[in-house]
Amino acid sequence: MKQREHGAPPPAVHPAAQLDDDRRARAQRQLLLPGFDEVAQRRLANAKVLVIGAGGLGSASVPYLVGSGVGAIGLVDDDVVELSNLHRQVAHTTANLGVAKTESLAQAATALDPGVKIIEHRVRLDSTNALEIFADYDLVIDGSDNFPTRYLANDAAQLNNIPLVWGAILATHGQVGLAWHAYGPGYRDLFPDPPNPGEVPSCAAGGVLPGLCGTVGSLLATEALKVITGLGDLLLGRVLVYDALAARTREIPYAKDPGGQQVTELIDYELFCRGSDPEPEGLPAAELAAQLRAGHTPWLLDVRTPAERLEHRIRGAHALELDDLQEAIDQDRALPELEVAGEVTIYCARQPRSIRAAQLVAGRGLRARYVIGGIFAFEEQAPEFIESGPLVDARDQENLNL
Known about the structure:
By secondary structure, the chain is an alpha/beta fold. It contains 18 helices and 15 strands. The N terminus is likely disordered.
């Protein structure tokens, strides 16, 4: 293992007083590495690492943090284990379906090493709690799956003056970077502005190769180990990009943006990532269910992909993918069916794409609402209106004719 170069950041954590026999025995193969000694292992034993997200990246990185000897690990997630998670979130099990992801991942971590301290934060990380949660940790690993949380994590880490290791995955590609503002650029220097809502699909919409989570998750854990111990060349000012299908990696160098906006406080990151378009009106899933049960059928628009609609959809909804809607708006083409309807209720999987679609439709002077929580929230409220399998309704056979 390469020693850190002169002028590089110092180790992020002071060493613990000593290692007991169990800690030393567990780290035996690690202590054999060139440049890695008992002091480095004592730094790991004294480290408190916060992991944002107990899903694909979290379930891959946490076992390696535990195995390397990190003394305390915090887990932030408000979700539960679902069957569709298990193909990539391999620290969770079928027996834990419906269990909070933090609890499920804590069980896996404790089974690996009962001596590790696991702190569960069963909350959604936001501007009201991030600074307080971050204050108890030496380092943060961001394995979240959305842009509001990524910007929030960057800013909260900067304001707490702690390093942030971040990762992102989609389909067959992954990225890993390090934001340590005292020593180099941060996430905002690389991505000053978030993408338009719906422009980058989520894993639920775009899919993800299972092993990609393991690759990127282990890279996150390794980078955290380097930051804690001060060993190796850190990913400061460079992003590692991994293409799983090509079996290739490349680096993207970047520097601090001299004109970048200074971070002085946390903001509303959902609003920040929503862009400058006016905020559309949200329709609670329970209210939509009540309307359908009462026989008042709104003009529904599904902006997901055909594959997603095959899996499940609201009966009678029209279909138009968000990308096609965006293209029609950009080219100023007519939207005859939408214009005749005059009022549109839009849904996607969770809600980000439908928010963007509602913004686009509202820009045409039509009333547009999005279903809060998307089809997953609606299905919990009114499963009787959900259908799946081959598309049989003529409105579902093809996208709207634009």
